[in-house]
């Protein structure tokens, strides 16, 4: 039996938003289901806490129809936007940035951004926007060196073995989802190799450290 290929058609910031889109797609005979990914270490540094991401999975063969339906939904939602919607406070540059990073925003917000820019008399340079989109995608695909993570992993192997264990695993195995739904490694092969080494060494050091601590306690008792 041929395995069905699933892709992430959209990501939402909340379970409620994702479920709304799933129910809409299912109402149009497109099978969809929810997937939840735990926030990464990077989000802890940027926002103070990891933020879970809620994805909408569909069969790859349904992608074209799903895109059509989701854009129809966005156009319908556009008619119901209040005059005090928060995007009206955005500058032209910020609205254009939404068009470039469209995969981080809802389809409705992208359409609203276009509408606001047009109402302000701004001519949207579609070619320029498309070039910026490609640059963003290429930057996402580019694997990171993980230089500082590697240094920290080795340096903290003895004093903070647990940190090295988690950090090594992160360098070695973490992936992120591209706008087209594909998952790719966040770090390059060299960083992943060091991450694996750090993880394995930490797995060796931690039990040794625990055994030494237990031995110290036993010696104190006797």
Please tell me about this protein's structure:
- It is a single chain.
- This protein has 222 residues and is mainly α.
- Helices cover 58% and strands 12% of the residues.
- The strands form 2 sheets. A 3-stranded antiparallel sheet has the order 1-3-2, covered by helices on one side.
- The N and C termini lie far apart (65 Å).
Keywords:
three-stranded antiparallel sheet; 12% strand; mainly alpha; 222 residues; Alpha-Beta Plaits
Structure summary:
Helices cover about 60% and strands about 10% of the residues. The chain has nine helices and five strands.
Question: Can you lay out the helices and strands and say which pair or pack?
Answer:
Layout: E1 6-12, H1 15-27, E2 32-37, H2 41-47, E3 53-59, H3 63-78, H4 92-100, H5 107-119, H6 126-141, H7 147-155, H8 161-173, E4 175-177, E5 183-185, H9 189-221
Antiparallel strand pairs: 1-3, 2-3, 4-5
Radius of gyration: 23 Å
Count of alpha and pi helical runs: 9
Compute the number of structural domains: 3
Protein structure class: mainly alpha
The secondary-structure element order is EHEHEHHHHHHEEH
**How is the biggest beta sheet arranged?**
3 strands, antiparallel
Percent helix range: 55-70%
Distance between the termini: 65 Å
Number of strands: 5
